[in-house]
């Protein structure tokens, strides 16, 4: 979810880990390792310093400043946490899902509007863009179909094949 403060929802604290206050973070990212590089996460809009973070069984175990025992860790269970977008470094061609939602979708072959990106399905093989206009179109988020993404101009150019 996009926020005017620059914070973006990035996962959920799903459990404690051990008895010394570590928490288990379920990442909402392509890779759990992405979340291990942040100095701070934001819980309830407030920054919390990350003292240590490691990938463990598809999640991230983290030691947070001020969370020193299981009692304080359990109080965080179920909370959604955010990162500050300005702290993130994305690889070339990678985007935050929240930034893609709402972009105008343009047919690369005809330059006609197909509507807008209404949702992104995160599937095991690849993401799928849900375009909504006169009809709903599902487009695999792979280079053969996603020709160009321009956040500054607010569009994504897609190549459609028969059957999409």
Structure description:
This protein is mostly beta strands. It has 2 helices and 12 strands; from the N terminus they run βββββαβαββββββ. The strands form 2 sheets. A 6-stranded antiparallel β-barrel has the order 1-2-5-4-3-6. Strand 1 and strand 2 form a beta hairpin. The longest helix is centred in the middle third of the chain and has 5 residues.
Q: pLDDT under 50 segments (min length 5)?
A: none
The spatial strand order of the largest sheet comes to 1-2-5-4-3-6
Structural class: mainly beta
Gross morphology is elongated
Rg result: 19 Å
Distance from N terminus to C terminus (CA atoms, Å) equals 27 Å
Q: Averaging pLDDT over every residue, what do you get?
A: 92
Give the number of helices.
2
